[in-house]
Write a structure and sequence with these properties.
- It is a single chain.
- This protein has about 350 residues and is an alpha+beta fold.
- It is built from ten helices and twelve strands.
- The strands form four sheets. It has a five-stranded antiparallel β-sheet, sandwiched between helices.
- Strand 2 (about 40-45) and strand 3 form a beta hairpin.
- It is globular, with a radius of gyration of 20 Å.
- The model is unreliable at about 210-240 (pLDDT under 50).
């Protein structure tokens, strides 16, 4: 829900969904806590669960629809939602539900956390599908990277007051270096928002501790249960192997594969080389030399984007990510990203 207020399902969307799956017996707002997010968790009269998603823009709708139709099926059954129906007029998608809880909401034991990232790597490798990349996709991937570098100045202008001159210079150097790497980076059909909140884990884990009344972003999927703390003096049972699924493909597009590693490198991989190693074990190959050079540069460009967007939209976590990334690039060796 957004800002503590549940968003009701518009009658037109309900009528559309019921024409497809029949009467709905339950509807729950499942939007992220931002105004543009419009997602509902619905159950039909037969007990089946679906998600109705209304895209924030035509471009998001087109990207997500194309992603579900072209690349997402390669992930396999139960590893991503399935597209049931779309409505271009309402920018709406009807999706099946997949089990799991966002990894970002779980306190996973180290072995399970590594398993989640190893599976994340394997799923993204399937999604990327570089070997089957059409010529138009390769051209689009090149253009996307050039546009990303060109946007740096716009982001710097909007982030006035949040960045020192030395950090602004760092972003500009990064943009210049990325342009030189364009022809060397493997193109892919990327997820576009590959981070732990979009990775659902099915398996025993301890939920993240939160203060009473604090809303937890993300969605709980059917049948998912997380056990509580073991009783004093009793040892917690060894968790069974878990499974990962990936959601939210509204930013999926053709772009260099390395762009899908940026938000992980700027988030859970910090100080957790074991998670990074597990991911690339699942991915099936290490970074190329060009990707090693590009990743910290793309992180700097992402940071500038965060500082241009976060403050204006009240998304403090986005702003914090940008500031944290720039501090890390400025104060530590860039090799820590790879």
């Amino acid at each position: 829900m957004s800002h503590g207020h549940a968003k009701p399902l518009p009658p037109s969307l309900r009528e559309w969904a019921e024409r497809v799956v029949g009467p709905l017996s339950a509807v729950q707002d499942a939007s992220h806590p931002r105004e543009s997010s419009r997602v509902w968790d619905v159950t039909d009269s037969r007990g089946r669960r679906f998600f109705i998603k209304q895209s924030a823009s035509a471009s998001f709708y087109e990207r997500e629809t194309f992603g579900y139709q072209s690349a997402v099926p390669a992930l396999g059954f139960g590893r991503a939602p399935r597209l049931v129906e779309t409505d271009a007029r309402q920018l709406a998608l009807l999706l099946t539900a997949v089990p799991g809880t966002p990894v970002s909401r779980l306190a996973l034991p180290a072995p399970e956390h590594r398993s989640a990232h190893r599976q994340f790597g394997a799923l993204l490798r399937r999604l990327h599908g570089t070997d089957k990349m059409p010529g138009a996709g390769r051209r689009e991937a090149r253009t996307a990277l050039e546009r990303l570098a060109d946007d740096a100045e716009t982001h710097l202008a909007r982030a006035t007051g949040l960045m020192s001159e030395s950090r602004r210079a760092l972003v500009r150097r990064s943009a210049d270096h990325v342009r030189k790497l364009t022809d060397l980076l493997a193109p892919a059909h990327i997820h576009g928002d590959a981070q732990e909140r979009n990775a659902l884990w099915t398996g025993p884990a301890l939920p993240e501790q939160r203060t009473p009344g604090q809303r937890t972003p993300g969605r709980q999927a059917p049948g998912q249960r997380t056990p509580g703390q073991p009783a004093p003096g009793r040892q917690a049972p060894r968790p069974a192997p878990g499974q990962l699924a990936v959601i939210d493909f509204e930013r999926s597009r053709y772009a260099p594969a390395v762009q899908d590693f940026v938000r992980l490198a700027c988030g859970p991989w910090q100080g957790r080389g074991d998670l990074r190693a597990a991911f690339f074990h699942g991915y099936g190959r290490p970074l190329t030399d060009a990707e090693r050079q590009a990743l910290p540069c793309l992180a700097a460009l992402d940071a500038a984007s965060c500082l241009a967007y976060g403050p204006d939209h009240g998304e403090h976590d986005v702003t914090a990510r940008g500031l944290r990334t720039l501090a890390r690039l400025e104060n530590g060796p860039w090799e820590t990203f790879v």
